[in-house]
Amino acid sequence: MKTPLTKKVRDFSVETLRGGLRGERVVLRIDTNTTLGEDGRVTEGESWRILKMIPTIQFLQEQGARTIILAHQGRDPKETLKPIYEFLSQRIPLAFAQWSELDEVMKTLKDGESVLFENVRSFQEEKKDDPSYLSSLIDWADLYINEAFSVSHREHASVHAIARLLPSYFGFQFVREVEELSRFLVPREEGERVVILGGAKFGTKLPLIEKILEHKLADAILLGGALANVFLKEKGVNIGSSYYDDTVDVTHIMNDPRIVLPIDFRGRDGSVGMIESVGDDAILDVGPKTEELFSRYIHRSREALWNGPMGKYEDGYVQASIALAKNIVESDTYAVSGGGDTSTVILEQGLEDAFQFISTAGGAMLDFLVEGTLPGIEAVLRR
Question: What is the pLDDT of residue 69?
Answer without folding.
Answer: 98
